[in-house]
């Protein structure tokens, strides 16, 4: 039977980062990835001779090379990837728009947001400055009980519209909780979105994944694809090993699961072990938030009808911005529109890409997908994509035409390819902030450990190995 | 290993962690972290690299003894004698 000092479930960004960390100092580690491709929630596929990304709109946490303590640069040092080997394209600017009410633009220069708030919300300028000063003092990495971010933000900012506008991108880019979030998560996202900002690495997510994979392999890290974990075995409050989908039993000294909190619980087949892992009921640890994401490839002639300067638009048309599971299959009244071609210095492409995200109702999509009549799911997709297109047309001021290719992923698609229950890309609302579990050699890394986004999930993998496994034996 | 050899090992490890680190004007009696703008994550790399290269285990409780270049030498000297 094979045995490893460290086994990692999941070859997504957090799993790869954790693997690099451990392998770097000469220790044997094996990553087991269920899918035939690495990347997890941030992967890719090919259609129309084009590589299409599944998760990535933009990477948050932009930082200049000289800012050594910035999350991005700390991460790269930890992975031993020289910053100068990467070409990063910064966003032009992004916009939060609540049509007919207000618009706020922001870029990787925080002063733009300050200026915009001064103009749109003159009465809130001073309180916003106090608010930012308080956030700067806040350490989101110190473990503490959950605090309502809504209440905290409203204690500084009286203008409810401003509060909603600030929450809109923050929730869409990382909240697994309905209509509120934990303050620590809010602070992490506020910094990574507004104070640090958006960028894209040159190339595609595939290039980034390959860079990580090559680094991992250069340290002799091992990885197996199409190798899911079916069961986790325990022995006296410790994990002894796993059984793979191929039926092989592999032993380990330590196990890191990046599959997610509720997803990991499902891997304990004995009721006692599952209970030891977590006593919370499944409802509480599962997120109700999932999304439909659409990709449009448009002919070059469409470019003149699209915004040229905005990288991402976060919009809301409803009277009140809400962030919860909609009643309908999707809720087009709010969403995110991303223009991947609008990053600084990116090369011109023969097709223009547009990506749109809306909140979705998992149950509705699951019901349609499971229906004997397979056309149900397809026609539901078609209907709601048309609804989405109408709204997007309203927001960007032109209808989307000349579509060369379009595709959308529902929560069911995401669940099928990533094993994320209910397609909940931001994971469980119940975060395991220290990564520890009731089993002394099992740790949770990735989205459900509570660091968010692409940089965050990688830092999560790195931190869990650093804190719990490296130099402990 | 001699004092200078140990110092060089430490400097080489730091250069490997951050190849832009300026090691020319390092004060051996001052904290490395303050002078080099390193954080605790980088610091762990020094410990792990020493473990990988010389098989020496440095428990967490001893980390403060690696704070300066001089204290590193004092701490590592008896442990690297055989190396």
Task: Note down, in words, how this protein is organized.
The complex is a heterodimer of chains A (about 475) and B (about 80). Chain A is of the alpha/beta class. Chain A folds into 3 domains: about 5-80 and about 205-285 and about 430-470, FAD/NAD(P)-binding domain (3-Layer(bba) Sandwich), CATH 3.50.50; about 90-195, no CATH class; about 290-420, no CATH class. Chain A is built from 15 helices and 18 strands. In chain A, a hairpin with a 2-residue loop joins strand 3 and strand 4. The model of chain A has no long low-confidence stretch (mean pLDDT about 95). By secondary structure, chain B is an all-alpha fold. The longest helix of chain B has 15 residues, at about 5-15. The interface between A and B is medium-sized, with 14 and 18 residues.
Instruction: Tell me the Rg of chain B in angstroms.
Output: 12 Å
Largest sheet of chain A: 7 strands, mixed
Largest interface: A-B, 14 and 18 residues
Give the beta-strand count of chain A.
18
In the CATH hierarchy, the architecture of the largest domain in chain A is 3-Layer(bba) Sandwich
Looking at the structure, what is the overall shape of chain B?
A: globular
The share of residues in helices of chain A is 25-40%
Strand content of chain B: under 5%
Approximately how much helix is present in the residues of chain B? 55-70%
Strand content of chain A: 15-25%
Distance between the termini of chain B: 6 Å
CATH class of the largest domain in chain A: Alpha Beta
Q: What assembly state would you assign to the polypeptide chains in this entry?
A: heterodimer
Q: SS-based structural class of chain B?
A: mainly alpha
Mean pLDDT of chain B: 91
Residue-averaged pLDDT of chain A: 94
Integer tally of domains of chain A: 3
Low-pLDDT stretches of chain A: none
Head-to-tail CA distance between termini of chain A = 22 Å
Whole-angstrom Rg of chain A? 22 Å
CATH T-level fold name of the largest domain in chain A? FAD/NAD(P)-binding domain
């Amino acid at each position: 039977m094979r045995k490893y000092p460290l086994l990692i479930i999941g070859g997504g960004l957090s799993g790869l980062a954790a693997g690099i960390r451990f392998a770097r100092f000469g220790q044997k580690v094996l990553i087991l990835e269920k899918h035939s491709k690495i990347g997890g929630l941030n992967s890719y596929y090919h259609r129309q001779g084009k590589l299409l990304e599944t998760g990535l709109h933009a990477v948050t946490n932009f930082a200049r090379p000289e800012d050594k303590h910035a999350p991005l640069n700390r991460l790269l040092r930890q992975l031993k990837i020289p910053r100068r080997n990467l070409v990063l394209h910064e966003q032009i600017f992004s916009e939060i728009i609540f049509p007919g009410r207000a618009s706020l633009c922001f870029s990787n220069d925080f002063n733009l947001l300050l200026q915009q708030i001064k103009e749109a919300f003159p009465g809130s300028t001073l309180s916003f400055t106090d608010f930012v000063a308080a956030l700067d003092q806040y350490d989101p990495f110190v473990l503490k009980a959950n605090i309502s971010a809504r209440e905290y933000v409203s204690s500084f900012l009286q203008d409810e519209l401003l509060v909603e506008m600030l929450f809109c991108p923050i929730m869409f880019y990382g909240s697994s909780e309905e209509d509120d979030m934990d303050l620590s998560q809010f602070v992490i996202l506020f910094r990574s979105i507004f104070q640090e900002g958006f960028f894209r690495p040159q190339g595609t997510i595939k290039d980034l994944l390959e860079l990580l994979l090559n680094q991992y392999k250069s340290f002799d890290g091992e990885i197996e694809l199409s190798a899911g974990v079916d069961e986790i075995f325990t022995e006296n409050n410790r994990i002894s090993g796993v059984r793979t989908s191929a039926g092989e039993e592999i032993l380990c000294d330590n196990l890191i699961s990046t599959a997610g909190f509720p997803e990991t619980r499902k891997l304990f087949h004995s009721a006692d072990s599952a209970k030891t892992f977590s006593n919370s009921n499944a409802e509480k640890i599962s997120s109700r938030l999932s999304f439909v994401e659409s990709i449009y490839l448009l002919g070059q002639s469409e470019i003149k009808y699209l915004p040229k300067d905005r990288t991402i638009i976060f919009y809301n048309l409803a009277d009140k911005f809400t962030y919860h599971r909609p009643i309908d299959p999707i809720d087009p009244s709010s969403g995110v529109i991303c223009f991947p071609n609008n990053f600084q210095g990116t090369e011109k492409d023969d097709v223009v890409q547009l990506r749109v995200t809306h909140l979705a109702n998992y149950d509705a999509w699951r019901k349609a997908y499971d229906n004997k009549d397979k056309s149900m799911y397809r026609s539901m997709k078609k209907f709601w994509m048309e609804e989405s297109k109408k709204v997007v047309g309203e927001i960007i001021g032109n209808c989307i035409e000349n579509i060369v290719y379009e595709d959308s992923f529902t929560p069911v698609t995401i669940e099928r390819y990533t094993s994320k229950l209910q397609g909940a890309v931001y994971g469980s609302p119940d975060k395991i902030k220290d990564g520890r579990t009731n089993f002394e050699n099992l740790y949770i890394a990735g989205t459900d450990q509570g660091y968010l986004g692409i940089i965050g999930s990688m830092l999560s993998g790195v931190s869990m190995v650093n804190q719990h496994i490296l130099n402990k034996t | 290993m001699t004092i200078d050899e140990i110092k060089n090992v430490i400097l080489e490890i730091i250069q490997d962690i951050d190849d832009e680190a300026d090691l020319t004007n390092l004060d051996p009696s001052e904290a490395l972290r303050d002078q080099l703008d390193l954080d605790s994550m980088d610091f762990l790399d020094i410990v792990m690299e020493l473990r990988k290269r010389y098989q020496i285990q440095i428990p967490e409780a001893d980390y403060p003894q690696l704070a300066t270049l001089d204290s590193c030498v004092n701490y590592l000297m008896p442990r690297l004698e055989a190396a």
